Queue: 3 jobs
Job 1
Amino acid sequence: MQRFCTNCGHKLTDNAKFCANCGTPVNRDHNSNPMPAPENPTIRHTPANSSQPSPTVPQIPLPSSARQPETIPVPAPKPAPATMHTVRKSVKPERTPADRAKSRRMLTVVAATLAAALIVTAAGIGGTRLWANHKHRTALASCETAQQSQQTTYQNLKKLASQADKLSALNSAMYDDQQLHEKLLDLTKQAKKALGYNQSCSASDATETLDQTTAALSGEAAGNKKLGASLSDQIKKVERSQESTIDVKLEQVILSAKAMTGYGSDTVKDPTTIDNLKAALSDAESARQSDDPEKKTEAYANLIDAINQVSDSQQALLDDYPSGTYSATSEYKGMKGTQTITFDGQSADSDMTITARGKSVNVSISYDVKLDGDTVYLTPVSGYNSLTESSDVSEFAANRTMTYDPDAGTLTEAGQDGSPDVTFHKQ
């Protein structure tokens, strides 16, 4: 059934608890009517505290033909509350000083809580950054310490490697135990390889990179230290071995050097190597009189070096000489000759066959060889002539001169007494 507000007659919804128009509470039993209120009510509602009496509904008479019942009074509607004509509002009660103080305390607590939260958040962000900076500074300091340690071991290893190099350069005959020399060479090689390592710290590197560099530098420092200790120990062993043999070895090398100082300047490509050998020999003879093993060792090394320089200069000269076997054929006045010359540095062997009138003569000659520019000089030393069965080379051999062309691989000998030139070709 449709309901209406008992105060203003506004149509109510089924579940309404208050009138949407005037705000009057809705009583499902008494405060709603099934029909809307009349537009012009004859009954006026007065406030509850009014002095006027409440009006009553008049009695309705029944027809005269009917039995007259008792008159039943109709109660007047209850007066509406004083606020029935006003829109219902939420009225706040007046706040007491205690309430206001309580509110202030609540606001203070809330503000303090928010401030604390902001401070904690800011502190967390700042603290994280400060901690990251601290870790980076610590990592950089650790890396620089590791780098300094690595550099210290690096310099020590470099010094030992240089010392080992000098000892390794000595002739291996200086060692009673050859394994000492071999191990020294191996350790020196390892040291040189380790010295090729190069890594450093940088403040611009990330913390993780600095940690990795620190670990690498620390490992390298430990490796250098261990290798340096092994190399130092091996150097001492080698030095002790040298001390026991240096006198004998120095005497031997002095004798070898003296033999080489007799070489002429024409036996080497660089004559200054002979002069250097003589100077090193003089120093070695002086050191031999000393009681200082280190001085003897140094003199020995210098003399060995000077001897090697002379040998290299000799070899360089010999490299310019003809080498291998050259051959030639010739004919002159009814004689036919075939000849081969085999060169070996500053010596050569010649085999010649001469055929005339059905007879053959074999002549073998050994020569000393000298090269001057592109001219080769052959001086007979020994030989044999099958015709005369003589070994006196002065009877059948003479000095010979040839022009050497290394690019063409030829030796050309000028003819004598009107004979044609003879050209030897390298086989």
Note: DSSP finds six helices and eleven strands in the chain.
Job 2
Amino acid sequence: MEVCARPFNPPNEKNPSISDEALTFGLDLNKEIRDRIRLWSAYSAAFFIPLHPKLVSLPLILLIVLSLTELRKSLWDEFKGRPMWFKLSMVALPIYFFLHLLGMLWTDNLAEGWLDVSRKMNLLFLPLALFAVPWKRIGLVRIFKAYLIGVGVSMLVNYARMISMYWETGDSSLLIGRNAAGSIHLGYYAIYLVFAIAIAAVILKSKNRLKGKWFTWLLVTIIAAATVLLVFSGSKMGLFALIGVLIMLFLFTFNPQKWKSAILVSSLTVIALGVLVLSNDYMRTRLAEMVIQLSSEEIDSNSYESSMVRRMTWDGTLKVWLKHPVIGTGTGDIQDALMETYEENGYTAPYLKNMDPHSQYLQSAAALGVFALLSLLIAFLLPLFKALERRDLLMGSVAFILLLSNLSEGLLERQAGIQFLSFFLPLVVILASMDEKQEEVQRAL
């Protein structure tokens, strides 16, 4: 990770992470104090995301308020001057939010609708707030390092709790499953771990990282500990996300002149991950059940196995969407429509558990129609394609993790998912655009 200034904004000497070209509106704060609060709010949000969603709210509120009440004169002109991929990536989430507002016009369950709108407000304000900050690259890089530290702390807490419970009871089942994620939803925590692995890998291959064997071994330890905890959690989608990130890492770092070393390291990584997965009965059983259930031609409406239950929720949501393919049921009516469909089709487990679709794509399409689905796909696919073009592991990892995870999780239906997505997706897009601009300047010299 090379550290360089944003080319068009002179740095603030007192604060090397945020530039000085800004005007404030409505907040009578000393600029140095305001910049420090905003910067540390971003660091705090990144640190607390893997620990608990409630700890993230205050830092994000401070970041949004301080950013949107301090606007640079040239902000709109700066946005218009950015490449099309950047502009579409940054507006996709706000458009998705406005579609939820629009969906209130034809929803019947207004209480649920407004609750959903309020839950998703970060999708509007965070991309705007993060773009409004005149970042320097070093400030953005430190945010990802703060997140990595937060993941490290959360892993220490989870490992300590699991070992303590096992020590007291002798029950090895306490070392697997949801206990690996603590108080955070298992699927979301698996995403946090995979992203931490990607960040550590990016730092490891960076020419400007801290020198010394101790730092290298610290990053390797974080990667190993996160991988073991991910496998112990039994998260199938987390495992697939990790495999995808490892494939990207191989493709982006492959050097034909050192192909023997690359193949050796890749082979050892595959063998180590394979042994870890196959030696874990819980993960191996879940993968086998997934293959059996998903390959079954018929849906067992009385099954309680997680993969089959997901098939029921997906089938029910698809039926709801096909009734209103363009505009959907309305922002607040999706769950009511789903419960009716579950009951009509005899889907016992989803009906008794009042389950949502367990797929953000299907849920968005069924609730708000095809345009909501398209806005989500644009938000994930454009950064992913650009990352593949630029060999950008950080942006590629975030985009791929979100693209894949939303197949079987509704990340935008809980704060733990909304905070992660609306915070890190705009940040990696901004960082990639900054690097792209710097590369253009260097080519022109």
Note: Residues 15 and 92 are 31 Å apart (CA to CA).
Job 3
Amino acid sequence: MQKKVGQDMVIKKPQVSTRVIRRQAVSEQSFQQKAQSSQKEKKSPQSHQYEYTNRNQQTNTRNYYSLPHQEKNEYKVPVKGGILWLLIFGSLIILVITLGTLFVQAHIDITLEQKEYSINTQMVLATEPTEEQLLFKIGEVKNEQSIIVPSTQKQVVNTFAQGKVRIFSKEQKSITLPIGTMLVSSEGKKFTTISAVTITEMHKQLPSSVDVIIQAEQTGDTYNGLLDDFTLPQFPQLSARSLSETIGGNDGDQFVIDNTHLLEVETSLRSKINKEQSVQFLMNQIPEEYYIPESLVNVSDITFHTENVSEGVKVVASYTITGIMINRYDFQMFLKETLPETERAYMEVYDVSNIVFSLRNNVFSVDTKTLPVNISGVFIGRADFDKDKIPLSIVQKKKRDVQVFLSSIPGVVITNTTLTPSWVQVVPNKLSKISFQIKYQNK
């Protein structure tokens, strides 16, 4: 049986997959019209000829975009490599800026005003001061200097131990103690005074006192090294307390030196003891909040005694340093009140070492309650700069704003702000990254 084509058979064309390259918004109809137009032109054999079938549609489509009349600059695909390099370059810039921010530092050089002020006035120091007086206290220390003199000469020596005590009284009248007044220690050891003294009446409910040298009633070293409280059998209303150890008692053989040699040693010891060294020694013993003007220091008379040591004779010079201690802060506030009113707000008293105190009655003791003094000389004032508060006012501010702010502070003469790295123009927000270098300039 013959089958008719078109009736029972369906001829299927092979399916060819096509790929459309969307480089331009060109419709298929426009594309076919251009292809048909190029066929009608019947170009020479050298010209391009195209057949548009389903089989070679993909090839012809690709060839069309390479026709000579196609404009190459109608559309260009961005180069992926170029965009990548731009991203890398931008990231590097951000990284450099970030690292620079982490290591940013601010260094500020500031020159502040310094000025000398002169003073010449009178005032009163008191142990219980009023508003117009300054508080003072008595500072007292005992010191010794010694030299050992080698000796081989010995002899029998019997000596009495001696020491200094302070006797206190709460009586409303003066009492005189004659030479040989007995004092008894808590251990029962007896001593007597070697000079007559008078103790004044009690003042403002405070006991009065007087110092005196006492001597053991017997010779021997058993009376040495005593620091104790004493009673006075002849004056039971009085009491006494040691100011120094009892020393010098001896019985038996000991090394000796001749008087000429002893005087030479004593002269040498006196030369070592001067007021400047005594002031410094006393200053090292007092609380930090006090200071002692050199003109308000007394050095007592020097006493000498000898001690036996294995090498020979030890010559000891003993003395007492007494000074008027003035509260440092109170005195600085007193001086600040003497500054011109326009400068009190920002100037602080810095150095008072060149101020001289002179006593109007030229005497003081541990019982002194008030001291009229003359104050003269010069002191140095410096502009105040608060290193704690000012940095808080400049964090994260621009460099030029910081310069304006610092220059506006009273007492600032010169200021210069340096930021690192050099491209940074803002002060860091961490106080640890801000440093100051402060100098002073006389004005």
Note: The first strand starts at residue 105 and ends at 126.
